[in-house]
Amino acid sequence: MTNEIFELYRNVWLYNSQIFRRAFEKFGLSLKIMDKESRMVPSEDKKKNTLSSPDKWVDLYGNYLYRFALGRLRNPNEAENIVQETFLAALTARERFAGKSSERTWLIGILKHKVIDHFRKNYRERPVTDLTDNEKAIDTFYDHVGHPNRSPSDWMPESKKLLDNKEFWEAFHKCLNKLPQATHQAFVLRELESLEGKKICETLNISQSNLWVMLHRARLQLRECLETSWFEKKQAL
Amino acid sequence: MKIILNCKEAARIVSEGLDSKLPFTKKITLRFHLIMCKGCTLYQNQITALRALLHDYNNKIEQEDFLPGPPLLSQDGQSRIKSLIKKALS
User: CATH code at A148?
Assistant: First the structure.
């Protein structure tokens, strides 16, 4: 019984598809040709990115990568070393470049990995910011009953107003640089690299509760710094 | 478990909520505080918007030629890296 029904459906389907094919051929529109053309156009439009000659890399991207690294590492020597490591790693990875992203974006992708590696290795040399340091810093924002010393003033960090404003990002980096090293690294991994908490704890070799205190302190301090150094000044103008 | 939070405790939970899923009880006590407290509501909105802004910024500096100067790679560094690349290529 089921076989018969199946057979029936199959015949109906075959019959219909033949009718369609004949109809298309009659109008001179072969489905195959249409498909080929529509597939060919976008693939030719999408230019594959190619890499330039590596001996030009430093002139083309050296400064940009350096600034990018400096935003995350803060230390000029470390940033320079990371740029060097990035270019050397890129040399060996160059055959695997798929051409999907631009050359600069590809190099930045390598650099970001190098930065995380650096954080992982650097935890021994990092000055110890222990929990009590961060807790003490948090305490300074509040009075003895837990009321903030400074109530937030009314502003919003809106992307459409601030994203293209280079002056704002300068102020932002100035504020970010006031954080202690480990707290800064945790904040960069969380808010710029968007890593999960667990991954950050592994990378920086810290406990989860320590990470939460660090991030909380970073947010408190950064918010207040931006408020006084940017938002209140700009509103006063 | 405290039911009435002060601002210091509320801000801590706001931050925690950005990094993990809050347990139900914490969510409720926070909500309860935020209804009454304009300052903490503003605080929450600001740091949440700051996160979104930083996300956009990070995408921008990865995709576009945006980072402003002046810090430049030192001349020494430039020539050192150039010669290392040359060496690796030969």
Answer: 1.10.10.10
3-class DSSP assignment, residue A148: strand
Residues 6+ apart with CB under 8 A from B64: none
At residue A18, the pLDDT reads: 67
A126 touches chain B (CB under 8 A): no
A114 in contact with B at a CB cutoff of 8 Å? no
Q: Residues of chain A whose pLDDT is less than 70?
A: 1-2, 5-6, 8-47, 127-130, 236-237
pLDDT recorded at residue A42: 47
Instruction: For residue B19, tell me if it sits in a domain.
Output: yes
| Count of domains for chain A | 3
Averaged pLDDT, B78-82? 94
Based on the domain organization, do A139 and A222 belong to the same domain?
Answer: yes
A67 and A98 part of one domain: yes
What is the average per-residue pLDDT within B53-67?
Answer: 92
- Name the H helices within chain B: 7-19, 24-36, 38-63, 75-89
Domain count, chain B: 1
Q: Nearest CA of chain A to the CA of B34: how many Å?
A: 14
Cβ contacts (< 8 Å) between B61 and chain A: which residues? Answer: 68, 71
Q: Which domain holds residue B24?
A: 1-67
For residue B16, the chain A residues in CB contact (below 8 A) are 212, 216
* Facing residue for A223 by CB, picked from B16, B47, B61: B47
From residue A28, give the alpha-carbon distance in Å to each of A21, A41, B18.
Answer: 11, 21, 60
Claim to verify: residue A135 and residue A220 sit in the same structural domain: yes
Contact list, B85 vs chain A (CB under 8 Å): 54-55, 57-58, 87-88, 91
Q: Hey, are the CB atoms on B69 and A169 less than 8 Å from each other? A: no
Give which of B90, B89, B67, B72 is closest to A83, Cα–Cα: B72
From the list B39, B54, B58, which residue is nearest A148 (CB)? B39
Interface predicted TM-score of the whole assembly (ipTM), two decimals:
0.92
Q: Domain range holding A81?
A: 54-124
